[in-house]
Amino acid sequence: YMGLEYQFALRTLSHRRYYHLSRKMAAIKSVNPNADVIGAQHSVMMNITAGKSLADVVRTNLGPKGTVKMLVSGAGDIKITKDGKVLLDDMQIQHPTASIIARTATAQDDITGDGTTSSVLLTGELLGQAQRYLSEGLHPRICVDGIELARERVLDFLTKFSVPLSADNERETLCQVSRTALRTKLPNELADHLTEIVVNAVLCIRKPEEDLDLHMVEIMHMRHQSALDSRFIDGLVLDHGARHPDMPKRVENCFILTLNVSLEYEKTEINSGFFYKSAEERGKLVAAERKFTDDKVKKLIEFKKKVCDTPDKNFVIINQKGVDPVSLDMLQKAGIIALRRAKRRNMERLGRACGGYAVNSVEDLTDDCLGFAKLVYEHQLGDEKYTFVEGCKNAHSCTILIKGPNDHTIRQMQDAVRDGLRAVANVLHDKAIVAGAGAFEVAAHLDLLKYKGEVQGRAKIGVQVFADALLTIPKTLTQNAGHDSQTTMIELLEEAVKGNRVGVDLDTGKPMLPEKVGVWDAVRVKKQFLHLGSLIATKLLLVDEIIRAGKKMGKE
C-alpha cells in the first residue's frame, strides 16, 4: 500500500512539473511562434556538458609537462601551441555556452597575461561537481549561494596565503616567477634561457613611482640562427638601415639626434604657374627651393662639428620623416649616419633608451636634445637590414631580440615572452607572490572544508562543490606528468593537513615545498581565475531556459 502511494505522489509531482514547463513554453510560443526553446532540465545539462567538454579539450595542456595542440587553418597553416589563449582564440568554437566560457578565459589573459587554462578547468569542474547534486534535486540557486560564499572565503584566504615580495632577493624571486610562467609554454632549456632576458627587460623599463609600460619593451624577431641565440639588448633594434651606401656600417661613442623634420626637396605648396624668360631664371628658382632644404642640412652638420670635438665621437641622425638623396650625400660627406622614415612608436622608445628628445626644428639645437649610445651598427640578413643601437646609459626602453629557425618557433616564443613580461610586471605591481605547483589550491581546499562547518543550511553543498573543484588543478598537473593522481592527491592532502605548504613535484609525483624549489605564481593571476572561473559557472547554473528567438535567428 505504501509503495502504491509513493508511486502516485511521484506521478502527481511529475505531472505538475510537466504542466508548469508546458505553460512556460506555451507562453514563449505565444509571444514568438518561431522561437526554439530548451527547457530547464535540458538547458542546465547542456551548459554543464559544454563546460566539461571545453575543460577536457584544454586539460592536457596545463603545466610544464602538458602536451601541445596542433591547429590547422582552412588555408593549411599549421600552429603548434599549448598556450590556452592561443587555443581558445584560434579554435572555431560553435557552441554558445563553450564560446562564453572561452571569451571569459581569454579576458583573463588580457587582464593578467596568464591563467587561461586554469580558468576553463575551474569553470568546467565547478559545473561537473554541481551536476552531482543537481541530479539529486538540489535547486541551482542553493548551490550558487554556497559557491559565492566559498569564493569570498577563498579570495580572503589568498591574501593571507600570499608571501610579500622581499627587496633583498627581489631579482631572484622575479626570475623564479618568470621561469615558472615560461616553463608552462616552452621547453625547459629555452624557458631558462629567456628567464633572465625577460627579468632584465622589465627591470630596465621600471621607473620609481611610475606604472610599468610594457610597450617600452620592443619584441623584435629575426629568422636567423637558433632559439637559444635570442638575447636582451639595452637599446633599440630598428628594422631598416642607412640609405646611403657609403655611410659607415659600425660606429662607437655615438650621439643620437632624433628628428621630426623633413629633409626632402619640397616644391611650393601654392598651385601656381611660373613663366621664365630664360633657363637661368628657372635655375635660380630651383636653387632657391633647394636652398631651403640645404640650409637645414648645413645647420645639422655645424651642430655635429660642435658636438663631436674629438675624432672618437660620432653622430647619428634618426629621422621620422624623409631624407632625399642630395641631403644624404651631404650628411655622408660630413661623417654622419642618417636613417629616415623611422616608425613613430620608436621615436618615444629612442628617447627613453638613449636619452634626449625628438626635435621638430633645426633652429637653436642644444646638447640636451641628444642621446648617447656606445655602439651603433648595421646588420644585414638577406635583403633586410637592421640597425642596432646598443649600450645606452640609464636606458628605460629596451629590445628583446627573438631568433629562430622558422616562423612556428618565433611565434611560440613571442607569445611566451609576452606572458613572461606580464607575469613579472604583475608581481612588481602586487608586491606579493603565492606558492605554485598546486600548493595554494590544496591549502584553499582544506580551508574551505573548515569554513563549511560555519555555514548554515544547504549552502554547505556549494562550499563543498567549490572545495572539490579547486583540486582539479593539482590533479591535472599530476595526470599530465604521467603520475597516479589518486596516490599523489592523498599524499598531498596528508602533508597539507600537518600545516605544510606543499605542491606537486612533477618529476617524482611526490609532495614538495614550492618555496624551496622556487615555483611561484602571481597573486593577480590566482585572484582573477578564482573570480572569473566561478562567476561564469554560477551564471550558467542559473540558466533555466535557452531561447533562440532573435530577429535574425527565427524563420521569416
| Inertia-based shape | elongated
* Rg on CA atoms, Å: 32 Å
Question: Could you list the spans in which at least 5 consecutive residues all have pLDDT below 50?
Answer: 1-26
Helix content: 40-55%
Describe the strand arrangement of the main beta sheet, using strand numbers. 7-12-11-8-9-10
Instruction: Estimate what percentage of residues fall within beta strands.
Output: 15-25%
* Class from helix and strand fractions: alpha+beta
- Got a strand count? 18
The main β sheet shows up as: 6 strands, mixed
Number of helices: 18
What is the mean pLDDT? 81
End-to-end distance? 55 Å
Write up what this structure looks like.
The protein has 556 residues and is α+β, with helices and mostly antiparallel strands. Helix content is 52%, strand content 15%. The chain contains 18 helices and 18 strands. Strands 7-12-11-8-9-10 form a six-stranded mixed sheet, sandwiched between helices. The longest helix has 30 residues, at 2-31. The radius of gyration is 32 Å and the shape is elongated. The protein starts with a helix and ends in an 8-residue tail after the last strand.
